[in-house]
Amino acid sequence: HERAEELDVYRATGAPLSPVAGIPTALKDVFTTNGVRTTCASRILENYVPPYDSTAWARLSGDGAVLVGKTNCDEFAMGSSNENSAFGLVHNPWDPTRVPGGSSGGSAAAVAAGEAVWALGTETGGSVRQPASLCGVVGLKPTYGLISRFGLIAFASSLDTVGTLTRSVRDAATLLSALGGKDPRDATSLDGDRLDYTEGLEDGVSGLRVGVVAEASGEGVEPGVRTAVEAAVERLAALGAKAAEAHLPHAEYALSAYYLIAPSECSSNLARYDGVRYGLRAGGTHADSVAMMFETRGEGFGAEVKRRVMLGTYALSAGYYEAYYGQAQKVRTLIIRDYEAAFERFDVLASPTSPTTAFPIGAKVDDPMAMYLNDIFTIPANLSGMPAVSVPCGMDGQGLPVGLQLTAPVLGERTLLRASSALEADLGLSLRPPILP
Domain segments of the chain: what residues? Predict the structure, then answer.
């Protein structure tokens, strides 16, 4: 409130303001915020108050954005439905009996419900695009390293990417423009100055080569999703794009590779939560520090986090490292090569963002494999580091939103946003959840 009033006074002087100044912004609760509790939706960090800001939030707040709140998420960003939070689940604004997707489900739901103009989320295997699809908003995952990860509490460091959730493609471009640029505090941050991604946004798609990913149209894709995505590709073609079938031969192995690489990195990153320096420390009398650590981690982590930590520890253990983690990294290289080959023929690749629309709360919580399959179309872009976006492209027969995923080569954000903007304008969708007046 005070920050908004300061900006009103500044605006009254006629001084220029950033495009993000005064905009109500929500942050997924994995970004450190100086003096504001940051929990990662986990008991183990329930009372953690960071002494510094993440670079992403520092850049937005420095340009005048107003923080309206931290959003709920799956614990340590591990999940696809936002049912894994220590602080309760999140409901989908389109149907409160259904999930919003995850792990950035709170951010997607907040934007869809009008609680914030836009929000930041994070991507490791689709955690911005998948909830964007299920909640009917625009979800952008930039090229790995384009936005600094400093102050983003890590899940899997070689995959984690800051992403945006917005009501429009122009808002996504505006937000990305404020967030990009080199950060010396992040060793994976790409060189380069901030760019204005709103430039050329309305240039259309005439001549754009669109590859429709054949491997993303088979069994498991709901009919309503397939129909909406096919219609969206037809609209792009009607606007002047050239669509043809594309192939990612090794994409079928992406899910398996991801669930070896991400848990392996997770088991290392989460080793720091031991009850010694910060976060939860289990009560009671302990014979030694090892017993205290075991009890702290047992009490502090939820079931899904424990599952992934144990899986990653096993994959990295002596005798299994090369057979599991090493092989998964080789598959990752093959997927990158698939993308490189596809982008010799196409400017963007199109597929459904998710094989389904929002599913009922509790429907998949006891079936990890069924839950993991929600990210089958989003994971390849994370493994390859390519930029991708989910843009609303229609509704299914139940009145639930469907997202079209577009993927571009490294640093192809302008092309992604231009194509998404053209489709958005052509479809003219007014996605307003029924809970809104």
Answer: 17-256+324-427
